[in-house]
Model the fold of this input.
Amino acid sequence: MDLKSELLKSIWYAFTSLDVEQSGKVSKSQLKVLSHNLYTVLNIPHDHVVLEEHFKDDNDGPVSNQGYMPYLNKYILAKATEGTFCKETFDDLCWTMTSKKNCKPIIQQGLCSAKDCFKLFCLFNLLSEDRYPLVIIQPEIEYLLTKISNAMSLEWDGSALEELLSQNAALQDGMSVWEFLEHLSAGQLLHVESKETFSLAVDDVFMEMYHGIIKKGYLLKKGHVRRNWQERWFVLKPSSLMYYVNEDLKEKKGEVLLEEGSVVENLSDKEGRRCLFCVNTPVRTYEMSASDMKQRVDWVQAIQTALRLRAEGKSSLHQELKLSRRKQREILQRSQNNQSSHSETITVEAPQHSAPEQQGETKSSEPHIESTTQREVEAKRIEEEKQEREKQQAIQRDLERQLEEAKEAKEKMTATLTEMAKEVQQQKKMIHELQLTQVKLEEALNAQIHARLEEDGIRQELERQLEEEQKKLVEVLLYQSQLEASAPRSQEDSSTTTPPINQPTEESTEKEIPVHESTSTATPPDIQRSEKSSQHNTEMLKNWTIQHNHLMKPIRPGDKVEHVPVKSTCLRQGQALTSTEFIAKVQTGITQEKGNGYSPSPTEEEEEQDS
Done:
C-alpha cells in the first residue's frame, strides 16, 4: 500500500465526521477548514487561490465525496512527500475530528485508554482492507490480537473471537474500527488482567508495526574515537539503525545509515568480548556485541531483512507481511473457487450417464478431489518442514561452530589471565620495592632538609655576629680618628710632664690611693662608682697615650731607651690588651659619665702639670 492510500484512509474518517446528516456531502466552509489543516500537517504550501477557485460560490449546495476527491488528489495527496511530515501528527488530526463524533464514552471507560484508542485506530488502518467503508477481517484481527498477547507474554485464545462472530453474523464480513474498539474495551476479544500491562503491550506493537521497527534491544557498541565499549539501546528500521542512551529514547547518541553496499557479518571473539558482529557501511564499520549467541543470530537476521527491504524500496516490514498474507488468502480463495467450479462441471456432465453410473462417478470423483487436495497440502507441509529443518540445521551448525570458537577463546583467555596474574605478582613486588625505596628517599630528604635548616640557622647567626663586628669596627675607627685629631695636644703635654709620668714613684702612687679612698668615703655610692670608672678610663687613656708617644718619638743612634714600667689597671688576655675589651670598657665609662653628669676630679699628675 502506497503513501497516498494510507493518507486517504485517515482523510476518509475526517470527511465522514463532517457529514453530520450522513448524506455523503459536506459544506464548503468545513472542507476549506479541513483543507487548511491538511496543508499544515502535511507541510505543503497553502494555495489560497486554487482553494477558492475550486470552492467558488456559484456552486450550489455542499460538496460530495466525489466532488472533493479531484481537489484532494491533485493539490494535497499528489504534493505529500514521505519524510517531510510526521504521519503520527497527521493521523492524530484525523482521529481528533472523528473520535468526537463516533467514539463512545463507554470505550474509554473500559480496557482502552484514550491513547490506546488512538494507537489501535492507527493499527486498524494499517491492517484494514482497501475498500470503503473501512473494515478489518477476521485473519487480520487474529494477527493483531496475537501480537498484543505476545507482547504481554501471553498466549492468545481465539475462542472469544469465534464466539463473538458466531453470535453476530454481520461481523463475519469485517468489523469497523468503532465496533473493534468497543468489543476489545469490553473484554470480548482479549482477556487482560491489568490495564497497565495492556497499555504497554499496545505501545510496543504500535512502535513495531506503525513506526516500522524491525527489532529493538540493548547491545554493546565499540566507540569510534575512544575505542571503549558502551551499552546502548538500538532501534532497527529498514533505513537505519539508531542507538540511544536507554530505552526511553530521550537522548539519541547516533545513527547507522543502512545505505547501498552495507553488509552485516559475524566477528570472532576478541578483547574479552563474545558474540561479536559488525555492520560495514561505505562510511565506517560499527562493531557490536550481543548478550548471547541467539541474540546475535536474531540481530544479524533482522539487519539482513532491513537491508533487503531497503534494496527493494519498501519502507515497512509489516506492510510486506500484510501483502503476503493477502496473497495467501487470495490463493486459497482461488483454489476453493477452482474446486467448487470443478465440482459444478462434474455435476453438469453427470446427466448424460445413467443414474447408477452417475452415482458411482460422483462417489468416485469426490474422494479423488479430496485425495488430490490432501496430497497437495501434505506435499506443501513436507516441503515447509524440510526447509525449516534445513534452516534449523544450518543454525545449529553455526551455533556449534560458534561454541567451538568460544571454547578456544576461553582457553586463550585462561592462558592470558594466567600470564597476567604472573605479571601482576611481579608488578606488586616491584611496587613494594619502589615503596621501600621511596620511604628511604623520604628519610634522606628529611635529613637533608633538617641539616639545611640547621645550616641556615648557623649562617644567620654568623651573619648577625659579623654585622655586630662590623659595627664595632666602625666605632673603633671613629674613636681612633678622634684620638688622632687630639694627638698634637697630647704630645705637647707629654713633653712637659714626661719625667714624672715615666718614673712614677711608689710614694705618689701611695698618695693617690688615700685621696681616692677619702673621696669615695665622702661621696655617695653611685658617685663613687662613677669616679672609679672614670679614673679607670683616665688611667687607661694615659697609658695608651704614653705608649703612642713612645712609638711616635724618633729613635736616634746611640739613644738609650729607658723602659718605664706601666701600671696596668685593666684585665689582659695573653699578656696583650684586646681591642674588644678596651672599647667596651671605654664606652661603658663614657656612657656612665654622660648619664650621671659627673666629671671626675683631676689627678695629682694633672694638677702638677697645671701648676
User: Anything to note?
Assistant: DSSP finds 19 helices and nine strands in the chain. Confidence is low (pLDDT under 50) at residues 350-371, 498-523, 566-575, 598-611.
